[in-house]
Amino acid sequence: MTEPSLHIEEEDGATTLHLFGRLVTDRLAEVESDFANAQTTSKTLRIDLSDIEALDTGGAWLVADLVARLEAKGVEVEYSKASAAHLQLIDVVAAARPTEKGIEDPARGLLPWLSRLGEKTAGVGASILSLMSFMGETLTVLVRTAVRPARWRPAALVTQMEEVGFNGIPIVVLMSFLIGVVLAFQGASQLRQFGAEIFVVDLIAISILRELGILLTAIIVAGRSGSAFTASIGSMKVREELDAMRTLGLDPMEVLVVPRVTALVIMLPILGFIANIAGLFGGALMSWVELGVSPGQFITRLQENTDVWHLGIGMIKAPIFAAIIGTVACWQAMQVRSSADSVGRHTTTSVVQSIFLVIAVDALFSVFFAELGL
Question: In this structure, is residue 111 part of a structural domain?
């Protein structure tokens, strides 16, 4: 079998590339470097295929890749003395060549890992600065709007309050009711061992009023309303509606962000209070069924042993959680780029970051109130 080879010939200002032998896959290693190093200084190149004995897709790919590389440099390429079958195969392979470069696997080892860790750390720092800047901008616009009440958009505010608050009541009530039931059932099974069933009332009241009621409500709001904020504003950014607003002299922060954040700050304490009531009702019902603690006994024990500060601590945290959820959701929406994939990715990130920050801030509040003795 004739070994494949190539030869470049320049004559009278014209360059001809002669291909010889069997240009098939199992013989390509012999000429791969020759194809990679093939160059020409002229603006035209003729490829002579008359001496090709055999050609398959591997050989056609080498030819097509060489032609694409030379054409990218401005060289005009034409084929000479080629059979119709060979030309057709080369055209098919050329049409199937990828137009985008593949993504290289990340380098392995300690130093590349440290480099990637440093890049991610720097990215987290930049994200924190961007979020803090967005929070400051939101607060500035909120104060400016409060000073000039004529700039308020009551219709947008009421609409968002309805969507965030009123439409979210069913899921919040159901969740809190079930949490109260679970707390009473689990508490009863443990306290019954010590004959201290009546203390299940204290367990339910303190857990729900102080922590679980507002925390779980904030998590539900982050997943329900926070994701909706990011998706809606992000979609508007993809469709360039924010640019259109600026062209019309409207501030997207004032039109889109402030009503949503304000609605959350107003409605989350209300939802938290409703969640507390539903949780206590679920706990009272399960205590009655499981332990025989009548509703009257439950209410009496609740009044005698539950400090009003347990409710107050939960309500104090509510507007802080709301501001965090609303700001993070709108900030992530502003980071969306011009693709639907970006909207989905930032919506997911919005929910994750909101829930993480809410839990982290709740932990800080717990330590703070513990230090105060509350």
Answer: no
Longest dimension (CA), the chain: 110
In this prediction, residue 30 carries a pLDDT of 79
Q: What is the dihedral of CA 116, 122, 123, 127, to 10 degrees?
A: 160
Residue 119 covered by a domain:
no
For residue 23, what are the β-bridge partners?
Answer: 55
Q: Are 280 and 204 in contact (CB under 8 A)?
A: yes
Q: Looking up tokens 């060549």, which residue turns up? A: 97
Q: Which two tokens stand for residue 336?
A: 């969306």
Residue 349 CA: distances (Å) to CA of 192, 316, 357: 43, 26, 12
Characterize 127-145 residue by residue with b for buried, 16 or more Cβ atoms within 10 angstroms of its Cβ, and e for exposed: eeeebeebbeebeebbeeb
- Region 18-29 average pLDDT: 81
pTM over 0.85: no
Full domain range(s) for residue 39? 5-96
